[in-house]
Amino acid sequence: MRIISWNVNGIRAVAKKDFFESINKMEPDILCLQETKAQDHEVEETLSAMEHYTMHYNSADKKGYSGTALISKIDPIAVTKDMQVSEHDSEGRIQCAEYNDFYLVNVYVPNSGQQLDRLDYRKQWDTDFLKYLKNLEKTKPVIACGDFNVAHRAIDLKNDKSNYNKTAGYTQIEIDGMDNFIEAGFVDSFRHFHPDTIAYTYWSYRFKSRERNTGWRIDYFLVSKSLVDRIKSVDILSDYFGSDHCPISLEIEF
After folding, report:
1. Residue range 6-21: average pLDDT?
2. Which tens digit of pLDDT belongs to each residue from 117-143?
3. Cα gap 60→187, rounded to integer Å
4. Is the backbone of residue 66 left (phi > 0), alpha (psi -120 to 50) or beta?
5. Which residues are annotated as a binding site?
6. Where along the chain do its domains lie?
7. 219 belongs to the catalytic site
8. Is 245 a catalytic residue?
9. pTM given for the model
10. 29 CB burial (10 A radius; 0-12, 13-18, 19+)
11. Closest by Cα among 124, 80, 138 to 105
12. SS3 letters across 62-80
């Protein structure tokens, strides 16, 4: 089974590029998209060309903002939205698909803001999201994928010293949040298989960041420990364009 996760930074914008061609090349069994920036009916219309997939959407109340979509060749047993915590559930950031052997959580974690004005909120989000994942894990193992909006270690961003505690995505509060996921038993699957590889999943549109590979690794597959032995590969697919993020892939056998 191949799962692809991709922050598309606007589904309608990326669909005008090589998006469908890219998906055909990647051949996902399940595709998790973040930051669709569209309402459910707009996502559905944009993706209507994708046959042989079932589609599920979770759009934000605010138009043109946030949003997730989960597209699957394998029919999930059930799909639920959000974490049932009212302060977090208006931005379309979570989808959970139940399959026979696992839960798949598609997530777009909130950014702490240019002025770090949402950092306190982000800290609470991380706490509540971890509780949500651990509650799911009581029933089945969990694969959580998406844009976690944090570079966990210095190896995960180009300019670690100049960004530390100054830039959203690399503050100690956010690093601590990711530490808590790892300490609770979730495995950063890319880093597990590629402990010393420098690879990024996000590049700012400014300063020719992608050309210079001045990037950040902020997109993850976090998996329950019990699933690690089933993983065949985890890759960062930086040859695919269309967004300021690239897709990431996980191949797993059941």
Report:
1. 98
2. 999 999 999 999 999 999 999 999 999
3. 29
4. left
5. 7, 35, 147, 149, 244-245
6. 2-252
7. no
8. yes
9. 0.98
10. middle
11. 80
12. CCCCCCEEEEECCCCCEEE
